[in-house]
Amino acid sequence: MAKRCAAGEGELQGNEEMISPAKKLCTSAVSGLRRIAVEGNIAAGKSTFLRLLKESSPAYHVISEPITKWQNVDSPGDSVTASQQCGGNLLDMFYREPKRWAYTFQTYACLSRLKAQLRQLPQEVASQPNSTIFFERSVHSDKLVFAENCHDSGLLSDVEWNIYCDWHSFLLESLPLHFDAFIYLKTTPQTTWERMQKRGRPEEQDVALDYLKSLHEKHEKWLLDSENKMK
């Protein structure tokens, strides 16, 4: 069972080959490799925390959140996807018309994250003994925090939520992603809202504090409730 640990609020500011099932998609099969997911609210300081970790040791490798895919921006080393060729900033579309785009965004966010987290590790990482790979969020928070919050707030219908849960469970059973631990960057909703305004990401300028409060409650329930189990 993966370990969970919470980090208190600090001063943080703001063509690769896919591994085939035959190679066991769970890359923790690499000897000595540890896989840790860093979780937290929007603007909790995850990117800064991960950058500091990466700079602190050559044994640390970071898989960042694929947000550029959601913004329709071609990031270095990635090919342009069919959705990008069609145009559209899906992150912005979700924030502007959440009920219309909730299912589309939550589906694509999870699938793009899954793709990023299943890429074959660089040789220098895979060959290094006792290395650790840190992930900016996981497919578990995609479901248990963001998608579930959309359902609870009425942005996802019962039918959409049931379909989401069905394919999400199937993918995790078919493409196992084991995590050895979860690090939770616990930050107050007010602080994350202030940081979000400060960093000035255009899509986030109208995000309400109440939305961050709801996400905070979901993180607390998932990561700090000892009775809760990942499904």
From TrEMBL:
Phylogenetic classification of the source organism: Eukaryota, Metazoa, Porifera, Demospongiae, Heteroscleromorpha
- Entry binding sites for substrate: 65, 95, 106, 137, 142, 204
Alphabetical UniProt keywords: ATP-binding, Kinase, Nucleotide-binding, Transferase
**Which GO cellular component term is one of those annotated?**
mitochondrion
One GO MF term on file is: ATP binding
Return the similarity comment.
Belongs to the DCK/DGK family.
Q: What is this protein called?
A: Deoxycytidine kinase 2
Taking the record's annotation, the residue ranges forming a coiled coil are none
Record keywords: Ribonucleoprotein included? Answer: no
* Entry keyword annotation includes Transferase: yes
